[in-house]
Design goal:
Layout lengths: L1 E5 L6 E6 L7 H4 L6 E7 L3 H11 L4 E7 L8 H13 L7 E6 L1 H13 L5 E6 L2 H7 L4 E6 L2 E8 L5 E4 L8 H18 L1 H15 L3 H21 L14 H11 L6 H18 L5 H13 L12 H8 L12 E6 L2 E5 L4 H15 L1
Helix pairs in contact: 3-4, 5-6, 5-8, 6-7, 6-8, 6-10, 7-8, 9-10, 9-12, 10-11, 10-13
The structure holds nicotinamide-adenine-dinucleotide (NAD) and glycine.
Length: 362
């Protein structure tokens, strides 16, 4: 078992990574302040893991709320079901919420915890690779709006993140690949050595080698924890974690939430960001190709849907949270392992990238 720490002063918290951790109640019980505990999960994950989590919580006044499964349910209407359950059970401000699931459940539970009675505690038990390497760490919580992805939310840090790598055994290959997209992202934005390791070990990851998966999760969490500790509220370098996301969120919104997986959209977005970076002469053409090849080997898409026009991309990208003073800012690459956030990209080159990808798709 590995333990890391997200260093945020009095709001610091541990990330435990290991196999079979859902049978180690002592790792979460220390982080539950009072008797009331609400587990939030969904109809796919609950039958697999809820009983084990309830066993970990024996002795507490525990309840659960089971949401429908899917990105299309990550909205304010469905969020209300968590508040309904908390109020019906008379949960007070000392209660703890527990997110058992992937990024959708984690983001929604975290947002419910951020806003219920102006803020209660929560714990993350992430069960997808994507949630284990990214969304469970760092305290970004929220829901989607019809007009934009993750547009309603709050920063609210969990008390503890418990990653049981065994839960990946029930995750399908498409979801595993979606998580690998976020793993590759860390190599691209700040960890050249990790990118090189991924090039050598990608087949072990897609083949579910436990040692390789454990290493990738740990290295991703180290990277994420360092970035969050340095810039919790995204006034600077945390925005780099959004490599590929401006293009990717546009794809998710355009195609209808849940059609493209988040990681698939990010993969395509990273390929597009690499293309645009190469057009600026920052990234070499050869490195842009290396990135594309790695994503393809991970089983990820690198071309946006044919239906998306240049205008649709531009309209949807204008709703991005990185837009400042109506100016679009993009995360681009200077090299593999070094990224920047900039509004000083050339609009004609962005146009060329969108044109190029539109032709590729059709
Ligand atoms: P998800 O939560 O929809 O989970 C993917 C699918 O896998 C779902 O059908 C789920 O029920 C199923 N599942 C989960 N665990 C399983 C298991 N162990 N076995 C079998 N099936 C399982 O998707 P995701 O990829 O985990 O998360 C994507 C979401 O995370 C998006 O909404 C994205 O915006 C968000 N996100 C948030 C952050 C953040 O910092 N807060 C970062 C990245 C992504
Ligand atoms: N996933 C982006 C962030 O946590 O900032």
């Amino acid at each position: 078992m590995k333990a890391l720490q997200v260093e945020l002063g009095e709001r610091s918290y541990p990330i435990h990574i290991g196999s079979g951790l859902l049978d180690k109640p002592e790792l979460i019980r220390n982080h539950i302040a009072a008797s009331q505990v609400m587990v939030v999960s969904n109809e796919t994950i609950a039958p697999l893991y809820l009983d084990r989590v309830c066993d970990m919580l024996s002795g507490y006044e525990q309840h659960s709320v089971i949401l429908p499964d899917g990105e299309q349910y990550k909205n304010l209407d469905v969020l209300n079901r968590i508040f309904d359950a908390l109020l019906e059970k008379r949960f007070n401000r000392q209660c703890t919420l527990i997110a058992l699931g992937g990024g959708v459940i984690g983001d929604m539970t975290g947002f419910a915890a951020a806003s219920y009675q102006r803020g209660v505690s929560f714990i993350q038990l992430p069960t997808t690779l994507l949630a284990q390497v990214d969304s469970s760490v760092g305290g970004k919580t929220g829901v989607n709006h019809r007009l934009g992805k993750n547009m309603i939310g709050a920063f609210h840090q969990p008390r503890c993140v418990l990653i049981d790598t065994e839960t990946l055994n029930t995750l399908d290959d498409r979801q595993l690949a979606a998580g690998i997209a976020e793993v590759i992202k860390y190599g691209l934005i700040r960890d050249t050595g990790f990118f090189n390791w991924l090039e050598e070990n990608i087949d072990r990851l897609t083949g579910r080698d436990p040692e390789a998966l454990g290493h990738a999760i740990e290295r991703s969490c180290i990277n994420k924890a360092e970035v969050v500790a340095a810039d919790e509220l995204e006034s600077g370098q945390r925005a780099l974690l959004n490599l590929g996301h401006t293009f990717g969120h546009a794809i998710e919104t355009a195609t209808g939430y849940g059609t493209w997986l988040h990681g698939e959209a990010v993969s395509t977005g990273m390929a597009m960001a690499a293309d645009l970076s190469a057009r600026h002469g920052w990234l070499s053409g050869e490195d842009a190709l290396r990135i594309r090849r790695l994503l393809v080997r991970a089983g990820l898409p690198v071309t946006p849907p044919e239906s998306m026009s240049k205008t649709e991309f531009m309209d949807l990208m204008a709703v991005d949270k990185k837009v400042l003073d109506r100016k679009l800012r993009l995360v681009l690459l200077k090299s593999i392992g070094e990224a920047l956030v900039t509004a000083d990209f050339r609009p004609d080159l962005l146009n060329e990238t969108l044109e190029h990808y539109h032709q590729k798709a059709s």
